[in-house]
From TrEMBL:
The active site is at 246 (proton acceptor). CDD domains: alpha_hydroxyacid_oxid_FMN. It holds the Pfam family FMN_dh. Its cofactor is FMN. It comes from Ramlibacter tataouinensis. This is 2-hydroxy-acid oxidase.
């Protein structure tokens, strides 16, 4: 198996620099794909603005010498509460694509959710990192296919490859393209396909119950924003929920995830673990998400920017900077563990 070539990271590059550098290096069409948003981009902008609007209340003189990012998910301790979000066709950003991202994530103890539309075969990706003792979780994104038989075939392939959970994306059952309306997770279909025809294939809660009954893997639903949907997920005993608006790429004017997360946390309590993505671009964003009720956080576009700039080294650097910022922010807020973050961190303490 070939190993991605190491590339040099420009001197003095910080997290905020990667986006502009990636745009310089990336093919314009690839840049347009990865930076796309629905409609006028209201939700995409709101995602970032909502995290920025939250204040952290630091605490001083607390013992934090043993600060540790270890996070427990599904009964297993992982090195970090950070995961790479599922992002398709990463070879558009760099020839090494998902393989580089996976190797970098494993080296930093960060989890990976491999896209259902990976440009590198899933078996090759997981083979490269599964044996790394210091890696994070290895999960695989799933879209419902045309018919349950095709979906089950994909599930069995994911199980056989050795992935540890299924991340079912539920907020993009259909999507718009210049060729017409097409099912998410598939290639283009003839432009004659109408919205009504495509919606005949869209999954429902009955399909969620069917999937839970036909896999041994934990199932997480990605794309939950409404508290009532989170309650239904808990009722069906899914294993986790990822609060997400697809990075603002599906429904414009959907709420920012920083606004949806606390409402969902209030609705389901401890019934199931919550994760979140959308507009998270710094270590302080991660800490705010943990305080609002997330058990772990998924990061997307910053990873693509790192990949485009310097392949595996760029991804590793981005993830290292995010982790370092998280640790520093925790220390300045007097926290030793990610699980210690709560709403008291975001408002003046009553003590």
């Amino acid at each position: 198996m070939s190993t991605p070539a190491l590339q040099r990271i420009p001197d003095g590059v910080g997290l905020a620099d990667y986006e502009a550098l990636a745009r310089e290096r990336m093919d314009p069409q690839a840049w347009a794909y990865f930076s796309a948003f629905a409609g006028k981009g209201i939700t995409a902008r709101a995602n970032v603005a909502a995290w920025d609007a939250i204040a952290l209340w630091p605490r001083v003189l607390r013992p934090v010498a043993d600060l540790d990012l270890t996070t427990v998910l599904f009964g297993r301790a992982w090195p970090s509460p950070l995961l790479v979000a599922p992002m398709a066709l990463q070879q558009l950003a760099h020839p090494d694509g998902e393989l580089a991202t996976a190797l970098a994530a494993a080296a930093q103890g960060v989890g990976l959710v491999l896209s259902a539309q990976s440009s590198v075969p899933m078996e090759k990706v997981i083979q490269a990192v599964r044996g790394d003792a210091g890696r994070g979780p290895l999960w695989h994104q799933l879209y419902f296919q045309e018919g349950r038989a095709a979906t089950l075939e994909q599930v069995r392939r994911v199980e056989a490859a050795g992935f540890e959970a299924l991340v079912l994306t539920v907020d993009a059952s259909v999507r718009a393209s210049r060729a017409g309306v097409v099912p998410a997770g598939t290639g283009a279909v003839p432009s004659s396909a109408s919205l009504r025809e495509v919606l005949q294939q869209a999954p429902t809660w009955d399909d969620i119950a069917w999937l839970r009954a036909h896999t041994r893997l934990p199932v997480l639903l990605k794309g939950i924003l409404h508290p009532q949907d989170a309650r239904e997920a808990a009722r069906l005993r899914v294993d986790g929920v990822i609060v997400s608006n697809h990075g603002g790429r599906t429904l414009d004017s959907a709420p920012a995830t920083a606004l949806a997360l606390p409402r969902i946390a209030e609705a389901v309590g401890d019934a199931l673990p919550l994760l979140v993505d959308g507009g998270i671009v710094s270590g302080t964003d991660i800490l705010k998400a943990l305080a609002l009720g997330a058990r772990a956080v998924l990061v997307g576009r910053p990873v693509i920017h790192g990949l485009a700039v310097a392949g595996a080294m760029g991804v590793a650097h981005v993830l290292r900077l995010l982790s370092d910022e998280l640790e520093l922010s925790m220390a300045q807020c007097g926290l030793r563990r990610p699980a210690d973050a709560d709403l008291d961190l975001l408002q003046a303490s009553s003590q």
